[in-house]
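Box 4.2: Ligand-aware structure prediction
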Amino acid sequence: MLAKIKVNGIVQGVGFRPFVYRLASRLGLKGYVLNLGDAGVEIEVEGNDKDIEKFIFLLKKEKPPLAVIGEVNVEMGNEKGYNRFEIRKSKEEKRGGISTPPPDIAICNECIEDMKAGRRKNYFFTTCTNCGPRFTIIRKLPYDRHNTTMDKFEMCKECYEEYINPLDRRYHAQTIACNNCGPKIFLEYKGKIIKGEEAVWKCTDLLNDGNIVAIKGVGGYHLACIAEERNVKNLRSLLGRHQKPFALMVRDVEMAKEIAYVSSEEKKILESYIKPIVLLEKKKELPYVAPGLHNYGVMLPYTGLHYLLFKKIFHPLVMTSANLPGKPIIKDDDEIKKMGADSILFYNREIYTRCDDSIVKFIGDKPVLIRRSRGFVPSPINFPFYAKNVIGLGAEENVAICLLKNKCAFLSQYIGNTRHYETFEFLKNATEHLISLLDFKEDAIACDLHPNFLTTKYAEEIASERNVPLYRVQHHHAHIAKVMAEHGIREAIGIAIDGFGYGEDGNAWGGELLHCWLSGYKRLGHLQSHFMPGGDLAAKYPLRMLAGILGDEIAEFLYERKHAFPYGEKEIEVVLKQAKNKQAKKGVKTSSCGRLLDAVSALLDICHFRNYEGEPAMKLESVAKKGKDVLNLEPIIKDGIIDTKHLLIQLLENMRYRKEDLAYSAEEYIAISMAQLAIEKAEESGIKHIVIAGGCAYNEHITTAIEEEVRHAGYSFLINQKVPSGDGGISFGQAVIANEKMR
Ligand code: ZN
Ligand code: ZN
Ligand code: FE
């Protein structure tokens, strides 16, 4: 009996062929395995029926950790009389299939073992076919050593023997290296350079002495220090970042448990081969690490170098991406010097593509992605509908671009806020690189409806250059479409809650209730629109937003807080006048949920100035975490518009309660009224699915409260889990909508 098997998915560069070789040998099967250019892997096995059946079963069950098996196609045929099993040379030709370069993977347990003795003793860059950097080192496909930044390191004899031995774990491991032949590590300290293992130990001494060290990672540099008050304060002043939370790296889950609560599900994700940052509820306060928030972003070591550091470090480390304000993470050795760290731990291998750490947060029992980057990118997300080739370029903040191709969506790494020139340049490079890696040829481009986003301008540029149609997609429609596409549904009632999205009417939308299908939508309702005194300034100074909602009713409160206004009383006067007179009718209005949460945060004296995106709302969530509903407000909804001025007035009249309880009550009001409106509209239209998206959906209380109402009413409730719920996933929604409109 002979079986011809074709497997696609992520099966190249992940140790799949040696695995097949070992499996076939174990079962006494004969035949061959080979890489089919860009279309996966082809296998022929010959032997008795039972063994072949077992082979196919184990192929999926025992696959290497990095392999992602897509389709398995089996054809039976007549025996050809093979006398052994072999790994054959790759067929290079293109077959129009999809082969994906693998993502960067955290060091595996076997490699950690290998670092105990022999050629790789304490070698910082120990990797194998199951682990190590991939996406960040690949210049082009196929994924061979000469196409990566490992090309300048010639393998030593011992490494080469492993490389060509199909029974070795490092068979065809393109990152294979050892102390003798691989990249070397250095510490630059007080104008001196220390080389090799000593550099690592000196670095741990410096950290233990309270210094800040820049450490070269997988997708860029981190700035590191021991998470103690004095050091963290120094790091904050070095970066001019006074409030934004810093991520922590801990030795293991035990160390994580000393500072935070870790559920078994959170533990699983912390320890997964992706090793993202996971937001964990604080147990112990580490000063200045995450001011005013109830959680820390925590990750585990994910390279050999990180493991070495924790041999001599016994405290959590702050490990924050090294970047200047508004600029992307630094990946090049000459750039890092500008950061002003005490010393620099680096190695002599180039990072080709920058890639930030990914961030996961649990909403109830569901892990959701705040940032989808290292470890995920460029793995595809399955798209259940037929698709043309479309590029989605995202909005403005938290941008990641998306290439939609056949039944896959490829999202880029996290790019950032494209309002800044350097980040915009990064966007262009990342887009070009992904296009070339995937050998992608676009049929259309999709972008936001906002005329002035740089992503929109870029989209216009490529569309006209390449003569393909351009689709401008409303922001919240894209938000909802990305949930629908992820879950394979074509129609839903969508709750889109976020900070800002350009509306069809030119206003700033952000608390929307939409009836969506993939090619279009209808706005059924929204949070009440309010005037934003000073436009963007109202986002920076949430007290202005409060004035925009309450006008003169809040005058006394504002004057008592005049120091929170750069121009004091004069400014308050102007703001109140604007809110009151004609400008209130002409000026930009917003139905944003983010701005509403900001106003509540300002009213409860939680946050009067926004240092980073989402700060007032995030701090409100952290305060509400300790509260309960004391107001029990009934939603006031008229013609699809949720009265939110009512909420602010109720809060103002009940300031005698604890602010924790008021914060909770406010979130509850927003959640319950959104849920009620959604359920009412679902009933009217007979739609079964209610979905949620947008940055405010990361508020665990709001989202779980909506979910409870929706499920209780008998509807299904869906949220993104494979792409970010916020703007980091919006390019996917844009591409999906453009694809649908083209049909
Ligand atoms: Zn490994
Ligand atoms: Zn070697
Ligand atoms: Fe958004």
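In the box above, the bound molecule is fe (iii) ion. The mean pLDDT is 94.
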